[in-house]
Amino acid sequence: MNIESEEVELEEVENEEIEEEQKEQEVEEEKTQETLEAKRTRLQRQLDQTDKKLGREKPKSKAKQSDEFDYGEYAYLAQKGIESDDDIKFVRDSMADSGKSLRDTLNSGWFKSELSERQELNSTAAAVPKGKAANTVATDDVAYWSAKPIEEVPKEMRAKVVSARRAKEQDQGKFYNS
Fold first, then answer.
1. Which residues lie below 8 Å from residue 125, measured CB to CB, with a gap of 6+?
2. What are phi and psi of 136, to 5 degrees?
3. What sections of the chain are H helices per DSSP?
4. Which pTM does this prediction carry?
5. Mean pLDDT score of the chain
């Protein structure tokens, strides 16, 4: 009976070992199933740390879904004095060309000079009246030329200017109040 009891005990020990191995495998499978994403993140973090130690830092890029600014960026632009649609489009194009962030683009010297030049041109263009009203002096008017010296008067207007001056002199009286 001793042999039989030893065999039974061996079988029980083997069964227990098999059960423990199965439990360990199940636990390990659960770990791998739930941590694939965590493992990827951990490995990426380790890779970044190794790159940093080697001096191979990759530039951090801000992933944007669209080219449009959000309200915070519009407020920042307004605070910096950039409110017109043309200026905002210029900022957006400059950011795309340079690959820099909004703050870096606004702080760069070349951008500041170009923006101020553009804003000066726009303000000058806005200050100049458009259309025929911009030229308020009628150069074909006799009254305009009669105040000028006769040498500056065009030849075709001289006869009219001389006759207008004579008429004005004849209309005036001899006394200051007449």
1. none
2. -85, -15
3. 2-34, 36-54, 71-79, 85-98, 102-107, 109-127, 142-146, 155-171
4. 0.39
5. 80
Beta carbons of 1 and 7 less than 8 angstroms apart = no
Residue 23: pLDDT over 60:
yes
pLDDT digits (tens, 9 = 90+) for 37-75: 777 888 888 888 888 888 886 655 554 545 688 899 999
Find the distance separating the first CA and the last CA of the chain, reported in whole Å: 159
Both tokens of 122, joined, read 């726009």
**Which DSSP letter does residue 105 get?**
H
Return d(Cα 6, Cα 12) in angstroms, integer.
10
CA dist., res. 78 & res. 102, Å (int) = 13
Rg (CA), the chain: 45
